[in-house]
């Protein structure tokens, strides 16, 4: 566990990097124009500068925060972000229903409160319901495709 | 006063059609259901609904989103009273006395009185909106780009600093949001910005994956372990148990009125809203009470005042949104985002250009609130049963709605990948203690601010002076600076106070 203080220094550093990058990229790639007709670079460049200043302020000031001591939920994060990614990769190739099955199966792994039985039941019902709803709405999406 | 009656008639004509009534009913019922369930907030509900609005007209979309928004305020108190778990953050304070009432066997009365208080608060909020919106809009009609830029700056700064421990974080997230808003084609020159050659970024980042990723997914991830199954103290709420005694009614009037006034004020102010309003209302009642020790032991005043307050705040929040186009909260920003996506710009001209939309929406609030009273008094049993559904069954289904919904908008897996990206960002931000709401506000207001800034500079031929020369613009900017100075002062004072207490503890 990092302290709030260290997290803020780290966050400030990331904001400084992002701000510098945005300003640099905008000024080198887009038009600047004149004051009476500013180009597309000016607004992002200004944003970048402000962001870097705020990042610096965040890193150097040590403000009191009522930080909620919450344990970072590693397993749920990995399982759920992973299953969203799998859904995105599968949905175009294999269709909606297989993607939903994988998504729900992955989501269940985020938690250990499901038995095999209830997990399979939930996955099957959700997939069937999604298929049914999309079919009933008349959406022209592929529900399932085999062979890939 | 004839304009008022004419407007009411116009609004009723618009909102009383069968289709629009259906969407209003759907919206408030979904809001009620989602408000009842702990762990699923208003924003999750609104973001789940967003994909469907892409296939609807503007008015029904607004009816549903608004219905979900104020419906959750009614639903939120049920779990607070029966389980001591707030269904919504703004119901947290109702737990204190509401749950005590349940333990004393007065759950029915608490549920009945919160509904009455909610309806009362919302009604006053709507009336204020009807009376004040035309006034504000009329005065804002001569806003030039300078005033718009200044008032948007004020809105963003107040929304990100008020009520925050570390205002730097809020403002930094607004600026990150402004950056996300610049991605895509520049409206003025047609140049591509920060798309890095990806065609899918040329249209910019869309609202749906941003909101779903930043709010819905992290909320699920962080709730999985914290929401434990709870058992209900009372399963049956009979209608006869809901009738309050004469004494309870007599005690409730003044707290309800005071709560409503407090809520109406904080709702219309950008940056504060239902949550702040409900806490302020509770604190006020406790201070005014003849016997403050009754609070926390089932005092009816502690239940009705915050509920009236948060419902009034939910309604008056629409005033700055609709008359100036300045959202005070993320839900309001989303409403503006949906309007912009359908080619309607909210602002002072909305009431003259599209009066049927404005007054139709207001009249639908009345209808929605009446439906909510029906849902909450005769049909209360339905929602009590909903509390028995365990979270482990709910969250996979919400996740399916998120992914399938994002996919549904354009039938493209790019949107789902964007959900994944913003979900990862949202989790990282939660870890770092960065608020997500200011980011969304910045993202939605950013493009408008840039347009106004560029227009202002063209009109004044590159001169920045009109921003401080024009009285209204100068007032807004001065208020912004004052707010920044005040929050810096407050944050520094908190720091020195902690130093002092550390020194004292060390001795």
What would you note in describing this structure?
The complex is a heterodimer of chains A (148) and B (507). Chain A has 148 residues and is an all-alpha fold. Helices cover 68% and strands 3% of the residues of chain A. Chain A has helices at 4-29, 42-60, 74-94, 96-108, 116-136; strands at residues 33-34, 37-38. Chain A has a two-stranded antiparallel ribbon. Chain A is flat and about 60 Å long. The model of chain A has no long low-confidence stretch (mean pLDDT 85). Chain B is globular and about 70 Å long. Chain B has one domain (2-506). Chain B is built from 22 helices and 2 strands.
Question: Helix fraction of chain A?
Answer: 55-70%
Give the percentage of residues in beta strands of chain A.
Answer: under 5%
Which oligomeric form is depicted? heterodimer
Distance between the termini of chain B: 69 Å
| Largest sheet geometry of chain B | 2 strands, antiparallel
Shape verdict of chain A: flat
> What is the radius of gyration of chain B computed over CA atoms, rounded to a whole number of angstroms?
23 Å
Radius of gyration of chain A: 24 Å
User: How confident is the prediction overall: mean pLDDT of chain B?
Assistant: 86
**Segments of chain B where pLDDT lies below 50 for 5+ residues?**
none
Low-confidence parts of chain A lasting 5 or more residues at pLDDT below 50? Answer: none
Order of helices and strands of chain A: HEEHHHH
**Strand order of the main beta sheet of chain B, please?**
1-2
- The DSSP helix count of chain B reads 22
Largest interface, Cβ cutoff 8 Å: A-B, 70 and 61 residues
Task: Please indicate the percent range of residues of chain B in DSSP E strands (runs of 2 or more).
Answer: under 5%
């Amino acid at each position: 566990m990092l302290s709030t203080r260290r997290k803020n220094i780290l966050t400030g550093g990331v904001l400084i990097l992002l701000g510098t990058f945005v300003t640099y990229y905008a000024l080198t790639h887009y038009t600047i124009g004149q004051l009476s007709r500013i180009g597309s670079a000016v607004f992002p460049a200004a944003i970048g500068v402000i962001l870097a200043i705020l990042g610096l302020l965040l890193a150097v000031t040590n403000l009191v925060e009522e930080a909620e001591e919450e344990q970072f939920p590693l397993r749920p994060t990995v399982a759920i972000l992973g299953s969203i990614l799998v859904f995105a990769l599968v949905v175009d190739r294999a269709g909606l229903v297989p993607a939903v099955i994988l998504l729900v199966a992955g989501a269940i792994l985020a938690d250990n409160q499901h038995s095999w039985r209830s997990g399979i039941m939930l996955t099957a019902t959700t997939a069937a319901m999604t298929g049914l709803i999309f079919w009933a709405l008349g959406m022209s999406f592929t529900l399932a495709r085999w062979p890939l | 006063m004839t304009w008022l009656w004419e407007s009411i008639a116009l609004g009723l004509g618009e909102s009383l059609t069968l289709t629009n009534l259906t969407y209003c009913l759907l919206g408030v019922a979904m809001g009620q259901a989602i408000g009842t369930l702990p762990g699923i907030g208003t924003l999750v509900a609104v973001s789940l609904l967003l994909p469907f609005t892409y296939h609807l007209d503007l008015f029904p979309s607004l009816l549903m989103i608004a219905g979900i928004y104020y419906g959750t305020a009614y639903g939120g108190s049920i779990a607070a009273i029966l389980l001591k778990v707030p269904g919504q953050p703004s119901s947290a304070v109702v737990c204190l006395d509401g749950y005590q009432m349940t333990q004393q066997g007065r759950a029915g009365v608490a549920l009945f009185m919160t509904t009455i208080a909610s309806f009362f608060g919302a009604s006053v909020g709507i009336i204020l909106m009807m009376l004040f919106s035309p006034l504000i809009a009329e005065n804002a009609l001569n806003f030039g780009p300078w005033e718009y830029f200044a008032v948007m700056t004020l809105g963003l700064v107040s929304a990100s600093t008020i009520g925050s421990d570390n205002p730097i974080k809020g403002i930094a997230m607004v600026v990150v949001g402004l950056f996300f808003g610049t991605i895509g084609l520049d409206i003025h020159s047609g140049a591509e910005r920060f798309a890095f050659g990806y065609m899918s970024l040329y249209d910019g980042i869309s609202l749906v994956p941003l909101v779903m990723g930043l709010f819905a997914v992290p909320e699920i991830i962080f709730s999985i372990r914290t929401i434990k199954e709870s058992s209900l103290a009372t399963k049956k709420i009979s209608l006869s148990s809901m009738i309050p005694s004469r004494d309870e009614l007599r005690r409730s009037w003044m707290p309800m009125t005071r709560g409503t006034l407090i809520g109406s004020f904080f709702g219309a102010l950008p940056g504060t809203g239902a949550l702040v309003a409900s806490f302020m209302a509770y604190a006020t009642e406790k201070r005014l009470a003849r016997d403050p020790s009754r609070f926390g032991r089932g005092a009816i005043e502690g239940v009705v005042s915050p509920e009236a307050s948060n419902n009034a705040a939910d309604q008056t929040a629409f005033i700055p949104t609709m008359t100036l186009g300045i959202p005070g909260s993320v839900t309001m920003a989303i409403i503006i985002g949906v309007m912009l996506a359908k080619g309607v710009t909210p602002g002072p001209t909305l009431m003259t250009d599209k009066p049927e939309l404005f007054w139709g929406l207001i009249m639908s609030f009345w209808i929605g609130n009446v439906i909510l009273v029906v849902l909450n008094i005769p049909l209360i049993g339905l929602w009590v049963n909903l509390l028995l559904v365990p979270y482990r069954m709910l969250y996979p289904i919400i996740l399916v709605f998120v992914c399938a919904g994002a996919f549904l908008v354009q039938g493209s897996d790019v949107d789902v990948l964007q959900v994944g990206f913003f979900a990862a960002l949202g989790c990282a931000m939660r870890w770092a203690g960065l608020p997500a709401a200011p980011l969304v506000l910045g993202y939605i207001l950013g493009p408008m601010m840039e347009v106004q800034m560029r227009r202002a500079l063209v009109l004044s031929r590159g001169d920045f002076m009109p921003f401080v020369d024009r009285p209204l613009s100068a007032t807004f900017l001065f208020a912004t600076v004052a707010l920044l100075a005040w929050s810096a002062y407050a944050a520094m004072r908190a720091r020195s106070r902690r130093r002092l207490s550390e020194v004292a503890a060390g001795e």
